[in-house]
């Protein structure tokens, strides 16, 4: 297919100092939980994006010195020359596809940890550390400032030796000394580096100049700059940011601008639409003649073109859209717009970094598996037999299994009990703020629609007899799960007295099926993620009074890993949802919930008309169990294997279901290689 001429603009080159980006697609720095600890996996992940057409591929933030140690987070590292080869792996692979490699140097000062290096943290002035470590950062003296500049300069030179084409100076996300010196709340110095704006900008100006002097002959020098922290006075504010951009306008070769902190930058789709940063960054291009890149979870080529034509951006920055679809630029280039696998803004990718584990993505199950499993986002080995496969259930697990099996060339039949496809994704996407999650279904359904060898039957509830009669060689049971009604969960291993037989108990399934309670409703969240707050929002909109109850010490605690947490708290406050934390339920009698404080044991009661129990789920695996019990009939029916995947095996995130569906498809007819699951770094054999 030919490219739509409307998108030609996206494929024009942009000069960044001495280097040239071949098009406008720029993968901005993003964490990935692999970094310096898993350099082969990291390089392979970046390579796939270069292959997918991104003109620039950046690293994550890169520590420049032991005093900038980010342990336990695993980022890039250039403490000394021994770290060069790991990063060179990446730049070689990126260059092989004609893309530029960019390196985001950073010293996080008081927002580092030094848990590994045990260096004393440094900062513009004495202050507590950001992440609650029980230690303070000490004020840097003028010698320290000179040393910091030297470390940065030397790291830039090492970056150049590692083959990097663009070197970043990082002053974003409240994560970098160059930014900390700008912030009044972090910089209380009275010397030439503190006080007036001119003084607070001094260090950033010097570091930019140092970097240009050190590597600017062959490398572009980029400045990543936060224009707004949304903290009011004391934080970076737009007015001051405008002055700073004015003062430094022509020094960097590229401006990379966004909002700080990370939780305001990588906003989940529940809290921000595509292009939401525009009002905070659109002034930059008017102030500098240098190219500007910015992010906005851009997946629509029309929006991208509009950003450029309206003079907001020169380069389309992306982290999440490049994770969900490393081949996004290629697909636009080849006129395959409806093949783009759009990011859904769930931030499960962020949770990898946050939990110190390799990156993962709900939409792209191959993300993070490029090296260790040899999974490619676009290519998959062709089938190794003529087998027919029956997939039961068209939720994320079943749809992804069917799509990937179809891509391999198998003849696939999908049976779905409901009239609609998508399973939990369809149902959850109707809850407030989650509409973009339907993209998980839509992309797979549209891809399946292009495959002649995959047939989908809706409104087709299968029994074990149906499956036996169908006689496919392989049967995949992706039949999902349901929420428990008896209170069993993390906090109540024996269930909750009065729950199972009360008609006042509602589950998330009831809410998603439109069976909503009335009056004063207690949401008991024993799940700790997004669902409690989403249901609270739905019930407030429905007119209920809502009390959000959890045995945990705060609501939605796991959502800190997806950057939702603060936004959930704010929204709950806006919606006037009452919170009762650190209380478990002892029992329900009529309209009275008996509670107990989890630490003191002190009893208390709560009156309510209904309780929404978000506790635990049970697999809907009756069909699988029934098939297993009739295993002696399989041979006659022609069945060679039956496997349960996704929520029907073990309820989890949508990301787990997609991953398991994909994995099933990859592993069908694979060599029986024993129990080797994936490659690992640092084997000694
Ligand atoms: P997962 O997240 O594992 O993909 P979902 O709950 O999203 O699970 O999807 C499971 C799908 O399976 C649902 O759409 C459900 O209607 C369907 N399903 C369950 N049992 C059967 C069955 N016996 N026959 C056909 N479809 C079924
Ligand atoms: Fe987008 Fe979610 Fe994938 Fe992250 S995990 S890239 S937010 S779809």
Automatic annotation (TrEMBL):
This is Dimethylamine/trimethylamine dehydrogenase. In the N-terminal section; belongs to the NADH:flavin oxidoreductase/NADH oxidase family. Residues 10-338 form the NADH:flavin oxidoreductase/NADH oxidase N-terminal domain. Gene3D superfamilies: Aldolase class I, FAD/NAD(P)-binding domain, NAD(P)-binding Rossmann-like Domain. Its EC number is 1.5.8.1, 1.5.8.2. Residues 388-625 form the FAD/NAD(P)-binding domain. It comes from the Bacteria. Signal peptide: none annotated. It is an enzyme of class 1 (oxidoreductase). GO terms for molecular function: dimethylamine dehydrogenase activity; trimethylamine dehydrogenase activity. It holds the Pfam family Oxidored_FMN. Its cofactor is [4Fe-4S] cluster; FMN. The keyword Transmembrane does not apply. It comes from Pseudoxanthomonas sacheonensis. CDD domains: TMADH_HD_FMN (cd02929). Keywords: Flavoprotein, FMN, Iron, Iron-sulfur, Metal-binding, Oxidoreductase.
